[in-house]
Amino acid sequence: MPLQLVYKSCFLILLFISGTVIAEPSKLTGDNVLILYKKTDTQSKQVAEYYSEKRHVPESQLIAIDIKGSPEKISREEFKQINDELATHLLPHIKVLVLTWHAPYRVDCMSITSAFTLGFDEKYCSRPSTFFTQCYATAVSPLYNASSEKLRQKKSPPLSIMLSGQTFQQAKQLIDRGISSDYSQPAGEGYFVRTHDEARSTRWPSFKQLVRFWPSKKEVNLHYVDERFLVDDTLIKGRKNTVFYFTGAVHVPMIETNSYLPGAIADHLTSYGGAGIRESGQMKVYRWLEAGVTGSYGTVVEPCNYPEKFSNPQILIPSYMSGETLIESYWKSVQQPGEGIFVGEPLACPWCND
User: Fold this and answer.
1) pLDDT of 77 higher than 80
2) Is residue 84 exposed (0-12), middle (13-18) or buried (19+ Cβ within 10 Å)?
3) Residues 6+ apart with CB under 8 A from 19
4) β strands within 154-294, DSSP E
5) Contact present, 85 and 36 (Cβ < 8 Å)
6) What is the rounded CA–CA span in Å between residue 103 and residue 162?
């Protein structure tokens, strides 16, 4: 079936808030962002304040959250208390929630970004209780393949993302990349890799289809790369002007040898890519950010290799290149995001044109 490109269609809807007429945004800005930082975490607050300054987020939209330490997960009861306290801050114009920490990253069986956007609900978990020992498909996100107009509607929930790094300097560089990407209209390369890891390459049919039907005159060239014959090596190394890179592997080799344009997106299908920031175990999505990418995504619990639980580039890339922000394009591209976490600079908008 031919790829159907998503084109931007913006219109204004008048909202009446506190007696003031407000136009629904045609592009998300700092006015639409609520930043959450950990009250006892100096770096988290530092990142929040820097992001607020650079993206012109009103000071009243920086909120301290009382989370003790850096646990991997919090309980649904703890999350409910935090969410209840946030209720008065979630005004209709707030469309983005930015979490300036990297732990906790889970709420029970859900990722914390999905819990904030979708609300905690076991239907978004493949293992909703200890009685389940196998993987299952989860509920479909109501935001899957949604129009930008729907995502910005008054009743649409804010889209959540983590914005952090192992150091403040890494987070600062990420923020700066996102900002510098705005309106840049980059011309570069996109890579869609089928690896020797058959279990983690379940997205390869959609990769191949996307590249096959991609318009030849687009400013970004897309490449389907078959690496089934390679083990512990890759053809994607030393590449310049990389804008997109999607693959599947426990560890993706040589990513630091590539140069990534501001606003670049990359992710790899593996079980625990979103489970924290540590170096041990499976490669974490933060390695992409440290290599120079602006946004990524990974799961925080065992999802099995359902492609629906990971980004669909056939939706993500046309949306992004039609002028939507990174967070809008990413969120709408994952059909079952309950177990996955979004990381990066949410307002990056390389193809914005207004």
Assistant:
1) yes
2) exposed
3) none
4) 159-162, 188-194, 220-226, 242-248, 260-269
5) no
6) 10
Residue 77: count of CB within 10 angstroms of its CB: 10
Half-sphere exposure of 139 (CA within 13 A, CB side): 15
Residues in Cβ contact with 287 at an 8 Å cutoff, skipping those fewer than 6 apart:
252, 255
**Location of structure tokens 């204004």:** 12
C-alpha 258, offset from chain centre: 21
Residue 13 confidence (pLDDT): 24
- Enumerate residues 6+ apart whose C-beta is below 8 A from 69: none
- pLDDT for position 154: 80
The label of the residue with tokens 């009250």 reads 39
- What is the DSSP secondary-structure string of 45-114? HHHHHHHHHHTT--GGGEEEE---S--SEE-HHHHHHHHHHHGGG--TT--EEEE--SS--EETTEEHHH
pTM to 2 decimal places: 0.91
Residue 288, classed as helix, strand or coil, is: helix
Rg (CA), the chain: 19
Q: 160-200 pLDDT, tens per residue?
A: 999 999 999 999 999 999 999 999 999 999 999 999 999 99
List the structure tokens of 142.
């109501």
